[in-house]
Structures are given as structure tokens and as C-alpha cells.
């Protein structure tokens, strides 16, 4: 081992054995392959095809007379050979076919690309129309919401104005009621003052507690006088089953004429009730009270045995 040799690193992978030999063999094989292909192409282009043909007739035919050769001095000049057209090179045909195939592939690729572009444009157009439709719908929705909001605000303003009007009307009514109450109180106060001022001319008894100048109700003996006027007109066969009480209500004119009468409370004896009502209708007129007046409304109790 040389003193200047680099020691082998145990962690580095060992070099591949025979790497240079393998590369050389690969290059040699490729060179031989190229030579073989070149020789084959040259052989095909230089060898002319051999064509042979035999003509046979179906029926025997005599041969034509042989052509006599004219003397040399008169022999026509032989025709010049017509050059054969150049035969197409197979490599050129292959290149043409490859070129045509390539052009067909390019055309197909262009057609495919065009279709893809048309499809992409159609999709973009559809997306654009969809976006426009969405924008229109969004705008319509916003306008509808705005209109609804404005309508609600208008309704709220109308309700507020209506409520303010009602509140104002209530306040006015309250003021009017307060004025009416004050006027009623003032009227009552004035009446009380007039009543107090007119007590000097009152006609009541010394122990009377009323405030009017004269009593408005009937006297204590007036009910007996009315019964005395009505009772003679009662026609009733006493059954002796008790002493039922019938209450009758009378409406009387200022001159004492009975306007109407009705049974206010039944006695339980229908015959006695009917007899009392018939007697009131038959009486027609009631007597005046001690003060010369007739009360307009009377309630009188009637019993068979009083």
C-alpha cells in the first residue's frame, strides 16, 4: 500500500465493479445496431426488383414477317432511351406518411383544443349568466326587503300618529270631563246655596230633616185614603186560606188619573192578584193629598183582611 493512498471510509458504499466495462459494451452494441439499420436501408434502395412475364395466346396465331434491316447507310437512327421516372424512396414515403400522420394528429389536437376552448367559453358564459341572474335576484330581494322595511316604518309612523291622536283625544276628553265635573260641582254648590237661602220659606215640621222648601212624598194618611178609594171596587170570594199580600205599582198623572198599573209582587193567590188589578182599573182616578198634589209613582200593598 502506498503511503499517500486514502484510507477507505467504512461508512461509504463500495464502488460498483465493472462499471466502465458495462458502459463500453453498451456503446458497442448501439453502434452495431446503427450500422445494421444503415446497411439494410442502402440495400433496399439499390436493388431493383426483377420482373418476368410470359405471354401465351389461347388460339394459334401466325407470326408476322421479319423486319428486314436496311442498309447501314439508310438505317434510321435508333430511338433514344426514355429515362425512367425516379422511383420513390421508401424513406421519403415513410417520412410523408409520418408527416401526414403528424399533421392529422396536430389537426385532431387543434380540434380537441378548439372543442375544449368552446366548452370553456360556454361554461364561462353560463357562469356569467348565472352570476347576472344571482345579482338580479339579490337586487330584487334587497329592493323587496327595502320596500317591506319602508312599509313597516310607514305603518309604525301611522300607528304612532294614530296613538298620538287618540292620546290627544283622551286628554281633550279628560279636560272636558274635568270641566263638566267642575261645572256640575259648581251647579250643585249653587243649588245648595239657593236651598240654604230658601230655608226661611220651608213648610216642613220643626223636627224635619229635609232640605227642600216643601215635602215631595205623600202624607202618612194618603195610602189609607187610596185604599179606601180602591177597596170598594175589589170583587173577591174569600177562600179563607190566609191573608195574602199583593203589591201593585201605579203611575199617576198630576190630576190624579191612573196612567198604568202592574203587579209588582204576587200574593200567591192569582184570584186575589187579578181582583186587585181589576179594582185599580175600575177606580181610574185617585184623590189628592193634603197639599193638593198627587204623587206620580205609588206602590200599595193590598190584603183581603185589613
Name some characteristics of this structure.
single chain, 306 residues, mainly alpha, Fusion Protein Consisting Of Minor Coat Protein, Glycine Rich Linker, Tola, And A His Tag, Chain: A, Domain 2, three-stranded antiparallel beta sheet, 3 strands, 7% strand, disordered N terminus, transmembrane helix, membrane, transmembrane, TonB/TolA_C
Give your account of this protein's structure.
- By secondary structure, the chain is mainly alpha-helical.
- Among the domains are: 90-197; 222-302, 2-Layer Sandwich (Fusion Protein Consisting Of Minor Coat Protein, Glycine Rich Linker, Tola, And A His Tag, Chain: A, Domain 2), CATH 3.30.1150.
- Helix content is 52%, strand content 7%.
- It has four helices and three strands, in the order αααββαβ.
- The protein has helices at residues 19-46, 90-197, 222-230, 270-283; strands spanning 246-252, 258-265, 297-302.
- It has a three-stranded antiparallel sheet, covered by helices on one side.
- A hairpin with a 5-residue loop joins strand 1 (246-252) and strand 2 (258-265).
- The longest helix has 108 residues, at 90-197.
- The radius of gyration is 75 Å and the shape is rod-shaped.
- The N and C termini lie far apart (173 Å).
- Residues 1-6 and 199-215 have low confidence and may be disordered.
Amino acid at each position: 500500500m502506498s503511503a499517500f493512498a486514502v484510507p477507505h471510509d467504512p461508512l461509504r458504499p463500495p464502488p460498483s465493479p465493472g462499471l466502465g466495462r458495462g458502459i463500453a459494451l453498451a456503446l458497442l452494441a448501439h453502434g452495431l445496431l446503427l450500422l445494421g439499420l444503415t446497411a439494410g436501408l442502402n440495400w433496399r434502395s439499390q436493388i431493383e426488383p426483377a420482373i418476368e412475364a410470359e405471354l401465351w395466346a389461347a388460339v394459334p396465331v401466325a407470326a408476322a414477317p421479319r423486319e428486314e434491316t436496311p442498309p447501314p447507310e439508310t438505317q434510321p437512327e435508333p430511338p433514344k432511351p426514355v429515362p425512367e421516372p425516379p422511383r420513390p424512396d421508401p424513406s421519403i414515403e415513410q417520412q410523408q406518411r409520418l408527416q401526414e400522420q403528424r399533421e392529422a394528429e396536430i389537426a385532431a389536437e387543434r380540434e380537441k383544443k378548439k372543442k375544449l376552448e368552446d366548452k370553456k367559453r360556454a361554461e364561462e358564459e353560463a357562469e356569467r349568466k348565472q352570476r347576472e341572474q344571482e345579482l338580479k335576484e339579490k337586487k330584487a330581494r334587497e329592493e323587496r326587503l327595502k320596500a317591506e322595511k319602508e312599509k313597516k316604518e310607514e305603518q309604525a309612523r301611522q300607528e304612532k300618529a294614530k296613538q298620538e291622536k287618540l292620546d290627544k283625544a283622551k286628554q281633550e276628553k279628560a279636560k272636558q270631563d274635568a270641566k263638566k265635573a267642575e261645572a256640575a260641582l259648581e251647579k250643585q254648590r249653587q243649588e245648595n246655596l239657593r236651598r240654604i237661602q230658601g230655608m226661611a220659606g220651608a213648610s216642613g215640621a220643626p223636627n224635619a230633616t229635609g232640605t227642600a222648601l216643601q215635602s215631595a212624598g205623600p202624607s202618612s194618611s194618603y195610602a189609607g185614603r187610596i185604599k179606601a178609594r180602591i177597596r170598594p171596587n175589589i170583587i173577591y170570594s174569600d177562600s179563607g186560606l190566609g191573608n195574602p199580600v199583593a203589591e201593585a205599582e201605579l203611575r199617576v198623572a198630576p190630576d190624579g188619573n191612573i196612567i198604568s198599573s202592574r203587579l209588582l209582587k204576587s200574593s200567591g193567590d192569582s184570584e186575589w192578584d187579578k181582583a186587585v188589578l181589576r179594582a185599580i182599573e175600575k177606580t181610574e182616578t185617585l184623590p189628592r193629598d193634603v197639599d193638593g198634589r198627587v204623587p206620580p209613582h205609588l206602590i200599595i200593598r193590598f190584603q183581603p183582611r185589613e
